[in-house]
Amino acid sequence: MTIPFVTPPQVAWASGIFSAGSLRCKSTTVADLADVFADADAWQKEAHERVVYNVEMLESPYGEGELYVGATHLSAGLIGDEFFMTRGHFHQRREQGEVYFGLCGEGLLLLQSEQGEAWLETVQSGSVHIIPAFTAHRLINTGQNVLSALAVWPSVAGHDYHSLAQGFALRVFSAAGGIEVREVRVD
Ligand code: PAN
Ligand code: ZN
Predict the structure, then answer these.
(1) pTM of structure
(2) Which residues line ligand 1 at a C-beta cut-off of 6 Å?
(3) Which ligand minimizes its atom distance to the CA of 90?
(4) 7 burial via Cβ count (<10 Å: 0-12, 13-18, 19+)
């Protein structure tokens, strides 16, 4: 009997581009990110069809114990002085964690507990981010090039984009060519 070798999907580590696998792709534009950035006037003036990030996910089964794998490609850019970022979310099933791997570009991973404690991890090629359970997460591109990260998460985790309606407790801005982190006051 000949046992066949299965060719698995491939990812180019330097870019996060998948090959030899079926993909699901989703683009998120400036228009999709209303109320996400601090400067509403700057958001309004930006070309609404401009793509802020693309997510490419490998097709894989949904169910308890199953995993999803996806790459996020976040463009470099600013809305006002605020760096491009993903919408960010808690998992619907809060007890489900996730792992991000930095592939290329430079940025930050903003993490926030349910109690509102926020912290930042630097993302670059080779960085490994273990996102704990009960922790919201958002990628921020602070560099000049695309920031790409690979993510692995439980298929049952789900995305809750609403519980952070008041936003994250930290925002990251470009200031004098550097990075300025500001605490957001929630009244
Ligand atoms: C990632 C994110 C991806 C896009 O795959 O979904 O970076 O960010 P938003 O979902 O916040 O728009 C992930 O964390 N999955 O669970
Ligand atoms: Zn997630």
Answers:
(1) 0.96
(2) 28, 55, 70, 72, 86-89, 98, 137, 139, 151, 153, 157, 159
(3) 2
(4) exposed
